[in-house]
Amino acid sequence: MKENGAARLQPPARSIGDDQGRAIRPLIVTFGSVIEPDGGLQVRSRILAESLASLGMPATILSTRESRPLEPPPTWARAIHVPSRRPWRGFSREWARLIRHHAQSADVIIVANAMFMPAVEMSGTRLPMIWDTNECQTLHYERLDRTASNISKQIIWWGLERWAATRCTVAVAIGASEALEWKRIHSPLRDKLMTVDHAAYVPRDHLHDGDAALEEQVGGSLHRPILLFVGTIAAKHNAVAARWLIDVLAPTLPDTATIVICGPGSDRLVGRGKPGARLVLLGAVDEIDSIIDSADLCLAPLATGAGVKTKVLHYLAHGKRIAGTPIAFEGLSGAPGLLEAPLDGLSELVARIMATPESAEAAQSRVTAQLAWLAERHGRPLIVDQWRNVLACLNRN
């Protein structure tokens, strides 16, 4: 098992509770939806909430948005509350009041994004704070083109993240490589940073007839191989990746291949109108897992990014081969089924993969290896144990 944070923050394994032995009452402040995935990929806070419930301390969750009824709450949450209007960029007076009200019956507040810091500050709560860092936005903008807009956003995010780093009792990075970058960028984190690995949320009861689900979405059958990219197009790195697929990769492939781009905003992309692979722009879907099941090859052509990529973990959990860039596989190196090339060589790599189909025996061996790798590095028991250590450290401090 990998090292989990700074050496001095390693507590002995023991039950979690306050000085009177009562279970800690967590309050999670997060972007929704924790119940229903937005565009198919579940937010990190869902697995956090389920982990806390398995430790005997179901959380009260404040979510910016939920589309399903909140009563009765799911078994893994004490309660879920949303404001009447979604906070603008993570802030509103109502959101701050909601945090203040529910913090009165909590022992620790877990904040899923530094964008919530103004609302947390306005709430007046002085509970011990765990900052579940999710992604280093300062690092993300540091890697983007040095435009005036990106530089200004980097400065804003640096201020928010430094604020969270200073205010929190414990900070939680989503992977070991990410933790190193956090320590480089924010010195206040050097003695309070721990790691809880990122995980893919794949429902056990998802539909397994992926071909039928995809054919229903597009209104007919598709040529194979099917190459799939999943991502919210509004995200800075996904929009660039989608344009690369349309403008660069698709024209190099035969018209017998199909590229499916799936995620909120992908249905508004404009095709190239040139020969090459067929493009299917699905937009947001309610159930992404069956569509991933239908893919012959998953794609991660990211030019920039930071932290462990949810989509890559999700592809791995479905036993797929993934062609992508080194930045897309950051924090996941060594996973079976990752086929890596720099962006300017990725088209050639995809062509080679398509020209040499994988045998059934090789595919089965690879899938077995992928699932074993995920269980060891990103499995639920590991993540639950990591959260146990975080809470034990919080209790000791």
Could you tell me the CATH topology label of the largest domain: Rossmann fold
CATH superfamily of the largest domain: Glycogen Phosphorylase B
Instruction: Indicate the proportion of strand residues.
Output: 5-15%
Using the coordinates above, name the CATH class of the largest domain.
Answer: Alpha Beta
What would you call the shape?
globular
Q: How many individual domains? A: 2
Number of DSSP helical runs = 13
Distance between the termini: 24 Å
Q: From the 3D coordinates, which CATH architecture of the largest domain would you assign? A: 3-Layer(aba) Sandwich
Instruction: Using the CA coordinates, give the radius of gyration.
Output: 21 Å
List SSEs in N-to-C order: EHEEHEHEHHEHEHEHEEHEHEEHHH
Helix content: 25-40%
How many DSSP E strands? 13
- Enumerate the strands of the largest sheet in spatial order, edge to edge or round the barrel: 3-2-1-4-5-6-7
Query: Could you give a short account of the major beta sheet?
Result: 7 strands, parallel
Overall pLDDT level? 87
What structural category do the secondary elements indicate? alpha/beta
* Low-pLDDT segments: 1-15
Short overview:
With 397 residues, the chain is an alpha/beta fold. The chain has 13 helices and 13 strands.
List the helices and strands and how they pair.
Elements (H helix, E strand, L loop, with lengths): L25 E5 L13 H11 L4 E5 L13 E5 L11 H11 L4 E4 L5 H7 L5 E4 L4 H7 L4 H20 L2 E4 L2 H10 L7 E3 L14 H9 L7 E5 L5 H17 L5 E5 L15 E6 L5 H6 L2 E4 L9 H8 L4 E3 L13 E3 L2 H13 L4 H19 L1 H17 L1
